[in-house]
Amino acid sequence: MNILLEIERSLPGLTRAEKAQLLQWTARDLGDAFPGIESRPGVCGGEPCVVRTRIPVWVLEQARRLGTSEAELLGCFPTLRAEDLVNAHAYARAHKTEIEQQIHDNEESVA
What we know:
The structure is a single chain. By secondary structure, the protein is mainly α. The protein contains six helices and two strands; from the N terminus they run ααββαααα. The radius of gyration is 18 Å and the shape is elongated.
């Protein structure tokens, strides 16, 4: 309990950015940093996908990089919602190396 009191006393002295970082760490620690994104063995090779779909995060990230708008993505994937794209892009930013590797692996398998 002593740590909680320390945090409570320290909170007013933190900047908004520091408070936001603290919230991100807390959410990540609770294991719900990317709701709406899941990785399951046997589904898309275990790659992170948007829940309720079999759409890998790397596909959405690569499409975004190639200039596909969010409206176009939502039109191409009718099961997607705008919040799914937000979650997928957040996941891609936080797991940049993983997503880069998946994009690379896909390009290699097509070539």
